[in-house]
Write a structure and sequence with these properties.
Elements lengths: L7 H53 L4 E5 L2 E8 L8 E4 L2 E2 L4 H4 L7 E5 L3 E5 L14 E5 L9 E5 L4
Antiparallel strand pairs: 1-2, 2-3, 3-4, 5-6, 6-7, 7-8
Length: 160
């Protein structure tokens, strides 16, 4: 009785074909995590823009109470839930950088970094140095500079 099996050449050909398939398919799968992080940054920007628009328009409505911040013509506080507590601060009618995180929900792997009083970074801290802007995978919110200059939204995705 003859036993039939695969020859060494047949096995090598199958291994070569599998290797070619892996080499061609791997870059596609390797880029998925980068694409996912980029899309998260994009969604953060959309969320901040929507939150900013909502709070801005609510602050213009007479049904919401606002109060000026003494000595600061650029700042005022808004009572968005009409409970007598002015919990949201606006600069030139737009969200103050420290109020962004109150208006959006973030995953636990994302970090927030404040740089001075103008810039807020939201993204990943890959190297663990508490600096998000050096990892090049973030959303940056720049506060409104004046009554005629609205906030600036920027994404940096080169490190994602």
């Amino acid at each position: 009785m003859k036993s039939r099996g695969f020859t060494l050449i047949e096995l090598i050909i199958v291994i070569v074909i599998l290797g070619v398939l892996v080499v061609t398919a791997m870059p596609r799968f390797m880029g998925l995590s980068s694409d996912a992080r980029s899309e998260v940054i994009n969604q953060i920007q959309v969320s901040v823009e929507q939150a900013n628009d909502l709070v801005h328009y609510k602050s213009l409505m007479k049904s919401y109470s606002t109060q000026a911040v003494p000595g600061r013509p650029d700042l005022f506080d808004v009572d968005l839930d009409n409970n007598g507590s002015f919990e949201t601060r606006l600069m030139w009618g737009y969200l103050d950088n420290t109020d962004i995180e109150k208006r959006i929900s973030l995953s636990d792997d994302l970090r927030i970094q404040y740089q001075g009083i103008r810039f807020t970074y939201i993204g990943w801290d890959f190297d663990g140095d508490t600096q998000i802007n050096d990892d090049n995978c973030y959303f940056r919110y720049t506060q409104a500079a004046s009554a005629n200059t609205p906030p600036v939204y920027q994404q940096v995705l080169t490190g994602c």
